[in-house]
């Protein structure tokens, strides 16, 4: 009587091991973060143009479409701590010709401000307000330094004006700038 020896065979005995070349969500997120780091570090601003809007002034318009969640632009300026920001804001208030492009935010339990009042070639400071804007601000950290960026809050088509909610609802601000109501 012959004894048959049962051998357990594995699929890999017949076929080579296939490894997926798909990236994990963490890898994709890390790549996207590094891509945004590069755009911010190099001051790259693509897919936008500045146009004059009658009765409103300058505005920023999309030249290409942006997908929901996609990086649009950095709100670029001097990164200040609260005390320095308040000092500058008081100086700006003394000259009615000087606009105020200061954005306050919290990072690691501390209040910071990006002061974009100084005129530059950067577009982020010129994006106008709307309560129902197509962009939203987001904190983006590079080597421990916070940066404010604007990302698409919905799909944006070419030729659309880029807008975000400034978030200022104080009575004094609305009296001084009635357009903040909309």
Automatic annotation (TrEMBL):
Instruction: Kindly list the GO CC terms recorded for this protein.
Output: nucleus; polytene chromosome
Catalytic activity annotation: L-lysyl-[protein] + S-adenosyl-L-methionine = N(6)-methyl-L-lysyl-[protein] + S-adenosyl-L-homocysteine + H(+); L-lysyl(20)-[histone H4] + S-adenosyl-L-methionine = N(6)-methyl-L-lysyl(20)-[histone H4] + S-adenosyl-L-homocysteine + H(+)
User: By what name is this protein known?
Assistant: [histone H4]-lysine(20) N-methyltransferase
| Pfam families in the cross-refs | SET
> SMART domains per the record?
SET (SM00317)
Single GO molecular function: histone H4K20 monomethyltransferase activity
Show the InterPro entries listed in the entry: KMT5A, KMT5A-like, KMT5A-like_SET, SET_dom, SET_dom_sf
Classify the main location.
nucleus
Q: Which UniProt keywords apply?
A: Cell cycle, Cell division, Chromatin regulator, Chromosome, Methyltransferase, Mitosis, Nucleus, Repressor, S-adenosyl-L-methionine, Transcription, Transcription regulation, Transferase
| PANTHER family hit by this protein | N-LYSINE METHYLTRANSFERASE KMT5A
Q: Tell whether Cell division is among the UniProt keywords.
A: yes
Source organism per entry reads Monopterus albus
